[in-house]
Structures are given as C-alpha cells and as structure tokens.
Specification:
about 120 residues; 4-stranded antiparallel β-sheet; elongated; mainly beta
Length: about 120
C-alpha cells in the first residue's frame, strides 16, 4: 500500500537546474534508504544517488559535484537537486525506497512511476 509520488521533472536548458521530489505515502513502518535512478533511451537503468536514513550519501561519478540528494525523514521525502544540467542527463528519473511496511515485515523495495527530465536547448 506504499506509494511513491514524484514531482519536479520537466524541460530545462543546458546549464540549468531542477529539483526532484519523491514522497512515500501510505502506511510504512521504517525507511532504510532512498534512491534516485535514471534511464535514458537505449541505456540501462542506473543509480544516480542514494541516501540512508542516517544521512550517508553516494553518487554516480557522472553527477558528482552537480547533483545533491537529501531527505526529510519526518516527511518520508527524498529530493534530488540537479545543477549544471547537461543534455546527457536527459532521462526518466525514478525514485526507489527500501523500507519495511509493518513491524512484521517484509522489507521491500518500492519504485515510483518515473518523471521525465529533458535537457535541451
């Protein structure tokens, strides 16, 4: 019954910025980590960034220094601030949550439906 609601995608010029948001709604007991993935046309889906509820972060080499992941644990929300965007960043961006829906489990991965980011002049 957990659902991920994404927002913030759209069209932006090279060098511009966007901020993606993903909120986990519905009943959930614990969230261990939240991630952003992306899939460009003709390419495999790849992990862009991840963050644990303890605050540890990790980034793909292609976005280091340009993207920043953050979260609001109280709101069960993860953000992706994307700066200095390049045409190569064009992709469908997906939110993923690793969590536990109830005290009895099981632990599960949840996926959002994706939001399109297009970087073009």
């Amino acid at each position: 019954q957990v659902q991920l609601v994404e927002s913030g995608g759209g069209l932006v010029q090279p060098g511009g910025s966007l901020r993606l948001s993903c909120a986990a709604s519905g009943s959930i007991f614990s969230i261990y980590a939240m991630y952003w993935y992306r899939q460009a046309p003709g390419k495999e889906r790849e992990q862009v960034a991840g963050i644990t509820q303890g605050g540890s972060t990790d980034y793909a080499d292609s976005v280091k220094g340009r993207f920043a992941i953050s979260r609001d644990n109280a709101k069960n929300t993860v953000y992706l601030q994307m700066n200095s965007l390049k045409p190569e960043d064009t992709a469908v961006y997906y939110c993923k949550v690793w969590g536990r829906p109830s005290p009895s489990g099981p632990d599960m991965y949840y996926w959002g439906k994706g939001t399109l980011v297009t970087v073009s002049s």
